[in-house]
Amino acid sequence: MGRAPGVPLLVCAFRGSPQSPRDVAAHVGAAWGEAPCPVLVVDRHGALVRLNRAARSLLPRACDGDRLDGIAPAWLSDAHRHVVEGTPGAPSGPLTGAIDERVFEAHPSPSTDGDVVWWLVDDTDRRRAEQALHHAQERSGVLAEASSRLLSTLNVPRCMEETAAMAAEHLAEAAVLVAPPHGRRHTLTYARRGGPVSQVTWKIDPFSVHGLSEALQGFPPVPARWIDPHGIPDWLLPEGFTEPPGSVIIAPLPGHGVPAGALVLLRSGTERTFSDGEEAFARLFAARAGAALSAARLYTEQAAITATLMRELLPPTLERVHGVEYAAGYRPAKDHERVGGDFYDFHPGADPDQETVVVLGDVAGKGLDAAVLTGKIRNTLHALLPLAADHQQVLTLLNGALLTSHHARFATLVLASVRRQGGHVRARLTSAGHLPPLIVRTNGEVEQVPTRGTLVGALPAVSAQTVEATLAPGETCLLYTDGITEARGGPLGDEFFGEARLRRALAECAGMPAEAVVERVQMLAAQWLGGGRHDDMAVLAISAPKNGPLSVVGGEPSQIRRSR
Amino acid sequence: MTGYFPAEFSVEITEHPASCTVRIAGELDYDTSDELVEAVVGHLRGRPHTGEVRLDFTGLTWIDSSGLSALLMIHRATSALGAALRLDNRPGFLDHRLRLTDILDHLTGPVTPAGLSAPGEDGDQSRAGAR
Amino acid sequence: MSQVAQAAPHRERLWDAVVAGDEYAGVAVVQEALTAGLDAEAVLLDVIAPVQEKVGEEWAADRIGVAVEHAATAVNERVVAAVAHRAAGGADRAPRGRVTVGCVDGEWHAFPSRLVAEVLRLRGWRVDYLGGQTPTPHLIAHLHHTDPQAVLLSGSLPTRLPAAHTAITACQAVGVPVLAGGRAFGRDGEHARALGADAWAPDARGAADVLARGLPRPAPAAVRQVVDDLPHLADQEYTLVVHSRGQLVKQTLVDLEDRFPAVRSYSDVQRERTAEDVAHIVDFLACALYVDDPEVFSAFLTWTAGILEARGVPARSLSAGLDLLAARLHDFPRASRLLDEGSRALAARPGDLAAGPGTRV
């Protein structure tokens, strides 16, 4: 029997102890009639026996003797029939239903004479409160999701896609994000609930839509009720949105001082229109989306500026030129940076008879500050190339150009002028206070080039000695910075890689092409470091190729074995 | 990851009647060189005389190019004041670096009135070292 | 004749060219293979890739030296470039989408990832190839910039698996799915799964197929911490072993001298080689602790034993190192178990030189 398991206390208070409603009427009299909740007494045939005052005001047309199904909603008269007939399978929870605008829980108390007393408890406010709470939770859930989904990406198109997709999922049937114009073109991102997200860029007229141009210009938003849904042009409807729109919200996306775009939310005419609450929430969502989109746009702009400025500072790509192999590798001290205080540059000769000039060096300091100075040095050296026949003169002029009283940030470097002569490679090498180059002979011997000189950029005058070296086929001259030899780590964790280890490693590199030597040295230094912190590291190799450009089948294996 | 932690860097300046000693201990590198320059230049500004400045490297454990740069700045300051600079108790690695970069003679040479006398830098000379 | 069978003679000739360090001969071999009707993908994967694999095997067996190994790899790189250059002209213009191909931070074996990049290009993808030794912050900056459909992350060194894990979670946190590949991720991709990669492929063709099927974007909101994937890390054994690496190596060397007086007469270079061997053991132990897989450690030990024996060094020293480490780490239950299983794997070794985890010594 589907009687409510517990009649609420409020009801009990008025119900009193007697079981029979007629007794209730007799004993409680006026008090029963004054009960604030509606009470109906209905007989087994479904006729109204009696109503209290509250019940009369709820059902004004009802009179004693009326049939219940004539004056009350079906859910109540059906429930009465179930109670009277004892139909099995009647609902076990409290019966609930609407009467007019309000929601009631109905609690039946059958009496011995077959009448049923129906106590109706108004549940509307609790329901509304619960619903409001549910909405609030749902919305804060949506906002939390919006934040994490939007903040995870710094890619502008992606951020717009996520915004449109989430808006279509949670706020409307379809959403269109209109980005601020690029020239006269706008990027539009379309999303439909359950459909794919698409993006196009084309020329549109935002003034043709009331509310859109205002949103894109940063004016206060136009309330949804002022926007005529019939005035929405086709280009603002996502593909597959076939019904004519019935209601529209256009929410501005606030940005960092400038609008980040506008979010158009659409519902078709067959759906309910947007409520004020939904409109307010849409603005809240748009504010989050605008903040995320602005951050992504700012990052993109900054990254583009950095990339432009950095392009000049990035190390160049080296290659085989005029029968000589060149290769280089660079690793900045900080893994999140691309430039630092080590540098190298490469100026191929105009023809095979001209010397190719390479330089590798190191300025004191780290990061962007140091990198800017390397840029200055590279530019100055580039300008001094016509004088490269005399390294000493180039260094003197470079020194003068770098001298400043504000700091003693000097540079050390090695200049090399390289040319192929017959099968051999001749290199004029000059160190300006830098680690002398190492030459790997084919027999595995490693020699230090005895050039030395003063660092540049700190002293009033500098001097240096140029040394000429010759590389036979398969031999390599290595220029490197102290980041390699001062790499700290190794199996014990706190040792320097050191020159001795570098020499031992190079001895194994006899006969290797320049690229492979650079890779080998970089790899060994990196392995030595493990995960430890390190300074900038640069390596540059100049090799006389083992196989001349004309020999197609050179280099017998025996030669390689010997050079191991 | 290697568990390497550098020794504590310290600068200790002692004033004598006709000279002062700067004891430098630990690693003089990118992270610590500014501290040394500020300490020494700050001290020299308040000094009543121009006796020689001795940098004592007994406790030095490491020096990098930023450290050398700091020595050059100190040299500019002492030269501008007409004080001689001495580099005492140099460990091998320091000596190696000074010789490699060819600045040992410059740092410890006879005092010239101006620290910096590059052509075309006349306007800067008077300010050199007095920053 | 199938493309694979057709590739065999070209493979032999390319091997001769790369071992000779002869770039011109190598390029000529692949040009002929292409002219003979082998398609570019088959040249990359059935001619060049097996030759590169053989370079590693021959080095491990001490039949070629480090110099030849590096020179051969450099020649192969140029051969790949030649194939790519020739194929670039004929590729049909049907862009399938954009993907990023890169290596785990600290990974030096970029060659496999280069092959994958070229194969994907041949199949119509727009590929950003970042090469070896890509710091993870650069990879993530690149993803923000380009928003690719997927990242293909290549790794051959098991010791870089913790770095791979960092990269995988970082990529997923910006909403880009990760397809992991390479020897480091396990024979059946078990480590790729353990580290939460969205997919794994055994080779370049497999990777292309996975991409063709499409990879869903990970929910960017689901940012994870490493212990979410690997709860066993909470015992701190991995952390402590990594932190005390230098100390462990030093102590083990001292213990070795105590136990084997002959070690005292080692030259500096010999001493350093021994220290490096012990450090390698500790590195692989740490890696096995990270992924909680004894197979990682045992495979390294048996492989190293093979390398040592190929060079006439008895593998006994490895077992001794394990014993000494076990004594030092007896308070670490997982590490002790791994060392124990490692010792047993060494003892049970059949003595052949199976392809194992790649370490260039």
UniProtKB/TrEMBL annotation, chain B:
Which InterPro entries does this UniProt record tie to the protein? Answer: MlaB-like_STAS, STAS_dom, STAS_dom_sf
Ranges where the record places region Disordered:
111-131
**Which Pfam families does the UniProt record give?**
STAS_2
* UniProt-listed Gene3D superfamilies: STAS domain (3.30.750.24)
Please state every residue range assigned to the domain named STAS: 9-87
Question: Residue span of the signal peptide, if any?
Answer: none
| Superkingdom, taxonomy of origin | Bacteria
Which CDD domains is this protein grouped with?
STAS_anti-anti-sigma_factors (cd07043)
Recorded protein name is STAS domain-containing protein
From TrEMBL, chain C:
Keywords noted in UniProt? Cobalt, Metal-binding
* The keyword Metal-binding belongs to this UniProt entry's keyword annotation: yes
Output one GO BP term: homocysteine metabolic process
Organism for this UniProt entry: Streptomyces misionensis
Q: Quote one Gene Ontology molecular function term.
A: methionine synthase activity
Q: Where is the B12-binding domain?
A: 96-222
Write down the PANTHER family for this protein, in alphabetical order.
METHIONINE SYNTHASE
Gene3D superfamilies listed in its UniProt record: Cobalamin-binding domain, Methionine synthase domain
Q: Which GO terms describe its cellular component?
A: cytosol
The protein in question is named Cobalamin-binding protein
